[in-house]
Amino acid sequence: MEALAIKNTTETLQITLDKRFFDEAFLRETIEYLRTEYLAQRVDFDESIEDLGKEIKHSWWQRNKDRYIQEK
Question: Considering the entire predicted model, what is its pTM?
């Protein structure tokens, strides 16, 4: 058996994972990521949401950059 196999049917994608290569924690994290991506694609945001995201990142970086960059 391969570590990962994907079967494409008319209605579904079936993913089979070999337990020897993937642990349960990894699988749960991956499924949560896929769920989040699915939900994000369903939301109908306008273009201003990207500007808001950039503003939030910039603001966070300005408040926290000293924690990550040390002067030499």
Answer: 0.51
